[in-house]
Specification:
Rossmann fold, 2 domains, 220 residues, Alpha-Beta Plaits, alpha/beta, elongated, 7 helices, 28% strand
């Protein structure tokens, strides 16, 4: 997979290093030539000193040939511009954008070319809630410009789903159980998988179906 990362800060370089170690073809675009000069010998990937907010720079870097773009700069406005250019000008199949300030989260959607937005503060909040919440629905991650979420529920003793098979719960069409974690072990869910108290159930669900899922898994 060929991945282009805009921004060579700590976030961008960490992502680039991990993807490179996993065998992916990585390109990093950074507007500060001095930073590129300092970093290029530390990581054997493709480095381009250019402004990722300029369509001409992205074209010269070969953005039309990448599979994924990661807008990872420390500026939300730049990340939005990069995402929009990647999607509209170069038809990049997957665009992931970093959200630096949670108040800007609402902007990071498909209108700006963003397929997946990642907000570190919101992610940390979700992980804290996931660690301490039993019997509550917690949003972990948002996909496709906000149309779908990965949510988690740790089932309480009085959950209406305990002791019942997944198929019998009749989840809405726009909700899919993707994993069950039981006693620190992953259970691949099937229709006949029975749910028990303390199971961590992960569901991919649209915003419209989230309320129905909550009624199925969370006690009133």
């Amino acid at each position: 997979m060929r991945v282009a990362i805009a921004g060579a800060g700590s976030v961008g370089t960490s992502i680039a290093s991990d993807l490179h170690l996993n065998g992916h073809d990585v390109l990093v675009i950074e507007q500060d030539p001095d930073l590129v000069e300092r970093l290029k010998d530390s990581l054997e990937i493709t480095w381009v000193a250019a402004d990722a907010c300029e369509a001409s720079s992205l074209e010269a870097a070969g953005l039309a040939n990448v599979d994924v773009v990661v807008a990872a700069t420390g500026d939300d406005e730049d990340n939005l511009v990069i995402s929009l250019l990647a999607k509209q000008e170069f038809a990049v199949p997957r665009v992931v954008a970093r959200v630096n300030h949670p108040k800007n989260q609402w902007l990071f959607n498909e209108s700006w070319g963003v397929d997946v937005s990642v907000s570190t503060p919101q992610l940390l909040t979700a992980l804290v809630e996931e660690a301490v919440s039993v019997g509550s629905l917690v949003r972990l991650l948002r996909f496709e410009g906000g149309s779908a979420h990965l949510v988690e529920v740790t089932l309480a003793e009085d959950s209406p789903s305990t002791g019942r098979a997944i198929a019998d719960l009749e989840f809405p069409r726009d909700a899919t159980v993707v994993a069950v974690v039981r006693n620190d072990r992953l259970v691949v869910p099937r229709g006949d998988t029975v749910l028990y108290p303390d199971d961590e159930v992960l569901i991919l669900v649209t915003a419209e179906a989230e309320g129905d899922v909550q009624q199925l898994l969370v006690a009133r």
